[in-house]
Specification:
With 307 residues, this protein is an alpha+beta fold. The chain has helices at residues 16-24, 29-32, 125-149, 181-198, 261-274; strands at 3-12, 43-46, 56-61, 65-75, 79-88, 92-103, 106-116, 154-164, 167-177, 207-215, 220-228, 240-244, 247-256, 284-288, 301-306. A hairpin with a 3-residue loop joins β5 and β6 (92-103). The mean pLDDT is 94.
């Protein structure tokens, strides 16, 4: 079977012993899981002894599938070795490892997985590596925030299908790698604001980003970021426009820090793929419901629309 390896790291302001103690306790996992945000009502069962060799964490849900993970080796302050066993959507067994390395400002935590795919899914290996890597990055960000602050400022609400539109937006179209998306989007919104203001078209309205295409293999986004405008407004030079009629779309709301927006995106896409729904032909989009310059990060609201 085709084999693959994924690993991601993050630095946490905590000692290796403290970081190890937190990660080795399965009761903490639902608080920083990058998958349960897609299905918070999934059944989770944890061994009564949650942090010893032989302890298990299992899950079962329509979207997250079915499986379990077991502690095989615990080396306090240094290493956790687990075995993860998937039952649905297909059967597989993989090795999972966490390494804890001291740094000058805390601990470097590295999350590894060594897995394999069924032969008939060999063409999904690269996409799986990319998607799992993004999941690990989201999980490590939440782990870091949870250990350092005691909380994770990210709440995902899958509201279901709702009517949205008609909408019209104007903005700057751009493309970039996944790692560049934050700064590129910020620059696009700033440029759109300046051009709309010069054309006397800017009102106190909501920001929006439309994602036209995502190339998972190349890890690149094609998007337009800007603002909602009146349907009759003419597009100034240097800006792109996008519009939709009234449609029905899967609505996913995220409340919290923008750096955790990937939780809403992952949840939306998992629902779409898990239930085999069709993607929006007009592009998936997100609307920023409040102004980040006037709103505390934990209260920022973003509504994303998926088919």
């Amino acid at each position: 079977m085709p084999k693959y390896h994924v690993d991601r790291s993050i630095e946490i302001d905590a000692s290796p012993d403290d970081a190890f103690q937190y990660v080795s306790d399965f009761t903490t996992w639902p608080k920083w899981s990058p998958w349960l945000c897609a299905e918070p009502d999934a059944e989770v069962v944890i061994s009564e002894d949650s942090k010893s060799v032989g302890s298990k964490y299992s899950w079962s849900g329509e979207i997250v599938g079915v499986g379990e993970i077991e502690h095989l080796r615990l080396d306090p302050g240094h290493l956790i070795e687990n075995e993860i066993r998937f039952t649905k959507p297909w059967k597989a067994v993989s090795a999972v490892k966490f390494e804890f390395e001291p740094t000058t400002s805390g601990t470097k935590v590295t999350w590894h997985l060594d897995g394999s795919m069924p032969f008939f899914l060999f063409f999904l290996v690269e996409m799986t590596k990319t998607m799992l890597g993004m999941d690990y990055e989201r999980g490590l960000k939440m782990l870091k925030e949870r250990i350092e602050t005691g909380n994770v400022e990210s709440l995902v609400n899958i509201r279901g299908y709702e009517s949205v539109g008609p909408l019209k937006m104007m903005g700057v179209r751009s493309s970039c790698s996944i790692d560049e998306i934050g700064p590129k989007m910020e620059a696009a919104i700033k440029a759109a604001y300046e051009k709309l203001s010069q054309a006397n078209l800017f009102e106190d309205t909501e920001g929006i980003t439309v994602y036209h295409h995502l190339d998972m293999k190349a890890k690149r986004f094609d998007f337009t970021s800007g603002f909602l405008v009146d349907a009759a407004a003419e597009t100034p030079d240097g800006l792109s426009s996008w519009s939709i009629p009234q449609i029905s779309a899967l609505a996913v709301e995220h409340t919290g820090r923008y750096e955790h927006l990937g939780n809403a995106w992952s949840a939306g896409h998992r629902v779409v793929f898990g239930k085999r729904l069709k993607q929006l032909k007009v592009g998936t989009f997100e609307i920023y419901k409040n102004d980040p310059s006037k709103t505390p990060p934990e209260e920022l609201r973003v509504e994303s629309s998926f088919r």
